[in-house]
Amino acid sequence: MSNLHMKKAVCVTAVSIIVSVMALSDVNQRCIAENNGTISNDFLLGTWYFVYQFDHIGPIPTCTCPNTTFTRPTEEELSGYRAKYGSYDLPHKITEDSLVADRGYIKGLILGGLETKTYIIDPKSVMSSGPEGYEVYVYRRINEKFAFFWRCAMRGHVRYLMTNDRNATEEEKQLAIKDRSEVFNKLIRKYCVDICY
Ligand SMILES: *[C@@H]1O[C@H](CO)[C@@H](O)[C@H](O)[C@H]1NC(C)=O
Ligand SMILES: *[C@@H]1O[C@H](CO)[C@@H](O)[C@H](O)[C@H]1NC(C)=O
Ligand SMILES: *[C@@H]1O[C@H](CO)[C@@H](O)[C@H](O)[C@H]1NC(C)=O
């Protein structure tokens, strides 16, 4: 490649990276505007199991049981997050009402009191939370036992049904998603089933 071509290639790559980052932040902003319902952070406290994944891929049941445990952060945890993320332009603020989300292999903090929440990863982690340093998630309450979860960055293509009852029956799960437009026409992949394939 000539020097000029090289410069052009570098320039195009840089522009496309910037464009894709801006597009993602637009996606997040639109997601925040469209999902403006409420869910109380108290409701999320405890352990939630991701039992259905709504996707374009088929059933494939699995006994792995992705789960997240939500707890109130300690003052020390909050100040750790504030020290690392204080200079970030986060869609939601770090407040006393934030929740620690522990997935077992990775911890983070979710911010915001409405349906959409900003997720930032534990400052001690070497991983980062997405290209912008954070992700935006939607948690939508269905009833006492069930809620939907999805990542705004996935643009609604992949959603999950989560439950705070590890023993919820298949009938209860089906009833919870019945006639819900969020998952209309999507295939269900089942987690947390007893049989391992
Ligand atoms: C809330 O979200 C709904 C559904 O996307 C939308 O129709 C409505 O305009 C939004 N309301 C506000 C105040 O943004
Ligand atoms: C919750 O997730 C962790 C980490 O993936 C896993 O080790 C554990 O078995 C899960 N809990 C249940 C009840 O399946
Ligand atoms: C779920 O079922 C198991 C096995 O039947 C039982 O040991 C456990 O206590 C139940 N958990 C809840 C929360 O009901």
TrEMBL record:
Keywords: Signal. Residues 1-23 form the signal peptide. This is REVIP.
